[in-house]
Design a protein that fits this description.
Layout lengths: L2 E6 L8 E5 L4 E4 L21 H10 L5
Antiparallel strand pairs: 1-2, 2-3
């Protein structure tokens, strides 16, 4: 899988980040919250990212980062 960084909150590897893949999907890096109260299937997970990260992605355009 080819992964391209679209937008991040910093230049380090441990920050919330959104990536595009060559599969036409997005990967989201963020914190894994435990207090969400959702019923998530064992093969899935939930990550938490700042709202501003999504707004930055929209401003830059999905592929124009």
């Amino acid at each position: 899988m080819k992964v391209t960084k679209l937008v991040s909150t910093c230049d380090f590897k441990d920050c919330p980040t959104i990536y595009a893949t060559d599969r036409g999907t997005l990967l989201v890096q963020g914190e894994t919250p435990a207090d969400h109260g959702l019923q998530i299937p064992a093969h899935e997970t939930v990550v938490e990212i700042p709202e501003g990260l999504v707004l930055d992605l929209i401003r830059k355009g999905l592929r124009g980062a």
